[in-house]
Amino acid sequence: MIDHYSTVNNLMKDMADFSALGLGMKLRRYQQQVARSIVSSVMKASGMTFVVIFPRQSGKNELQAHIETYLLTMLQTENVEMVKVSPTWKPQSLNAMRRLERVLKRSFLSSGRWVKESGYIYKLGEARIFFFSGSPTTNVVGATANLLLQCDEAQDIQIAKWDKDFAPMAASTNATRVFWGTVWTSRTLLAREAKAAREAERLDGEQRVFILNAEQVAAEVPQYGKYVAEQVARLGRNHPLVKTQYYCEEIDSQGGMFSAQRQALMQGRHSKMFSPLEDELYAILVDIAGEDEGAGGEPGIDFELANPARDSTALTVVRVDLSTLGDELIQAPTYQVVNRYLWTGIKHTHLYGQIKALAQLWNVRWLVVDATGVGAGMAS
User: Fold this and answer.
1) Could you read off the pLDDT of 113-144 as tens digits, one per residue?
2) pLDDT digits (tens, 9 = 90+) for 209-226
3) What secondary structure letter does DSSP report for 27?
4) Nearest to 14 by CA among 82, 70, 59
5) Which residues pair with residue 148 across a beta bridge?
6) What pTM, to 2 d.p., does this model score?
7) Residues 210 and 34: beta-carbon distance below 8 Å
8) Are strands 114-117 and 148-151 parallel, antiparallel or unpaired?
9) Which of 203, 171, 208, 172 minimizes the C-alpha distance to 193?
């Protein structure tokens, strides 16, 4: 890769001001260093790996779109390719493409000059960016990221999928890699890359990990601070969503997702059930895990897992007791887990029939599915 940094530095000395390229965006202070560091690594062909952890709705995705437009514009005479990976095609990859389109249309240097190819490639001159889903079933063999490889919402991408299908895309040029996201647990792809990046920082002193919390965003965006304060007042500062989505704290850093007090509220004395009782309400909760490469048979048929340590799809049957709505102190339904089913590595096409049959058996009033990441296909 040619060292373009000196040329770019002359054209744009302050990465804080994207308006120099007609992008119409003045970066906030907490976005500026991230933009400078990523662009510098790309232009110098440094091959660095960055981890950027921002709270929800703090400008992470908009920053991505502006960096992408900037690089497409500055390197449009070069045969360069970028790859952007999101956990799902719909809605995440589609949303990422819409954001990029808005910025491309707004920039006077790219407006009317970029084209879209094959429904997932954006081209400006000779420079291209490809958008892919990181779903376990996605086929992405053959794509190359010789300039920049990005993983958005990296906490929701399976590590095995990333290592096998996406990481090699940057190999030929040791392209810059960026992992964007919001923390969840210490066992995610995002957490693994953050740990490795911190070790690289320790060795050479170059910052690679950028972690922001809600208070830092609120210092520049007061309205954001008011919103987060309302969520804290409603849910509590130690609620898992508040800790992870706004304060970027891993929920297993203190030994568990739930406090001892919360776990005490989850204990019950009722018996396990295998069929519903008449005149009672039931719900099913489904958390979808990935398929395994070795999976091929029906559920219940033994096969060798390619990844024995993978998560399992979990289906929880809940009895909904509405009698506690009349309790002055509770004034809410009570939920009792009466059965649980687990499948490990089973193909989703086989799971669909099993889940449908269980929903019919229990005559459920509600069926709740986690539609993020690998659960999107089953939810649809």
Assistant:
1) 999 999 999 999 999 999 999 988 888 877 89
2) 999 999 999 999 999 999
3) P
4) 70
5) 82, 176
6) 0.71
7) yes
8) unpaired
9) 208
